Amino acid sequence: MNMERNRAYRRHQRRRVIQRKLYITTVARGWNEEQKLIQQPGRLSKAKTHCSCAMCKYEKHYKVLKKQYRAKLDGVEKEIDYLRADD
Fold first, then answer.
1. Do the beta carbons of residue 66 and residue 59 sit within 8 Å?
2. Which of 31, 52, 66, 80 lies 20 to 30 Å from 73 when distance is taken between CA atoms?
3. Using CA atoms, how far apart are residues 87 and 69, in angstroms rounded to an integer?
4. What integer is the mean pLDDT of 77-85?
């Protein structure tokens, strides 16, 4: 069964992404209204907004393990404890 998205869905997704990136550029980065991307917000639909600041790369700057790595490490530690208990 071919379930294609309609035009309204695509417009909604594009508008949602633009609003999120507009918030990041104005509030988080502190850009002002004179910036070119904010004057033409439609450009944000394709623009990349990631960077290497402490807010975007929190785990890297503060040496915090990501949730997926922490879960794997916890599993390995439990397995080691289990093997030690058998001895």
1. yes
2. 52
3. 28
4. 89
Token pair for 14 = 């594009």
Per-residue pLDDT reduced to its tens digit, 4-53: 889 999 999 999 988 888 887 777 767 666 666 677 888 888 877 667 77
Please identify which residue in the block is written with the tokens 């502190």: 30
What's the pLDDT at 12?
Answer: 94
| pLDDT above 90: residue 83 | no
Burial of 62 (0-12, 13-18, 19+ CB in 10 A): exposed
Distance CA 38, CA 22 (A): 7
Separation CA 70–CA 65 (nearest Å): 6
